[in-house]
Write a structure and sequence with these properties.
229 residues, Rossmann fold, Arc Repressor Mutant, subunit A, 2 domains, 5-stranded parallel beta sheet, 4-stranded antiparallel beta sheet, 21% strand, elongated
Length: 229
């Protein structure tokens, strides 16, 4: 069955345009005119992706995004007139997968929808990833270190740290470039190499505090891998 897209947009004309272009490409759509309805539809219908406006009645897009991220990993693309870098960074920090500024070309919205869905489809290999003593539950957004006696200690990571750990853990012995980590974990941002280094440094510190001092590992001039083979 074709993907179901939840369009959370209070302007009916914009919603109709997005709906028409998506349905022409074979997507199924459902529309929410305010943030509260958007959350209710997300809970009831489990859409494959949300196109989310920021300025909506009852609950704004930031509140909706935060609530969605507390209970699921549903891909979210913000579609908003807010075009300042601080707005984009806030969206990515809360957990948006992409960011489209109004006025937009509907063809671009469809293209970005397809790209985010493809990226999400590549993430479905299994809910729980295991790499060495780490157990990563992608659905619950939990990371646990499993000790030799079978006891588990939970790690507290930010969303970006979690995304980077997941990406590295899918292929723990491969070296990923900083550019690959930006594309996979900070999509739509203008993050620089030092931004990746900062997130990795914080992740390494937390893993070190959990008794895993050598994860992730830096490879000079190339990037990072989770562990050596």
């Amino acid at each position: 069955m074709n993907a179901l897209i939840l369009i959370a947009e209070d302007d009916p004309e914009i919603a109709d345009i997005i709906r028409a272009y998506l349905e022409r490409e074979g997507f199924r759509t459902v529309h929410a005119g305010d943030g509260r309805i958007a959350l209710d539809l997300h809970h009831a219908l489990k859409p494959d992706l949300i196109l989310l406006d920021v300025s909506m009645p009852r609950m704004d897009g930031w509140e909706v995004l935060s609530a969605v991220r507390q209970r699921s990993t549903t891909p979210v693309i913000m579609v908003t007139a807010l075009d300042q870098d601080i707005d984009k960074l806030q969206a990515l920090r809360i957990g948006a997968d992409d960011y489209v500024v109004k006025p937009f070309n509907p063809v671009e919205v469809v293209a970005r929808t397809k790209a985010v869905l493809r990226r999400a489809a590549g993430d479905h290999g299994g809910v729980v990833l295991r790499a060495g003593p780490l157990e990563i539950d992608r659905e619950a957004h939990e990371v646990r270190k499993i000790a030799a006696d079978g006891t588990a200690a939970r790690l507290s990571l930010t969303l970006t740290e979690f995304r980077m750990l997941v990406h590295l853990a899918r292929n723990p012995h491969r070296v990923f470039s900083r550019g690959e980590l930006v594309d996979a974990c900070l999509p739509g941002s203008d993050a620089l190499d030092r931004t990746v280094d900062s997130h990795i440094s914080k992740l390494r510190r937390k893993l070190g505090q959990a008794g895993l001092p050598d994860m992730p590992q830096g490879v000079r001039g190339v990037g990072y891998r989770l562990m050596q083979s």
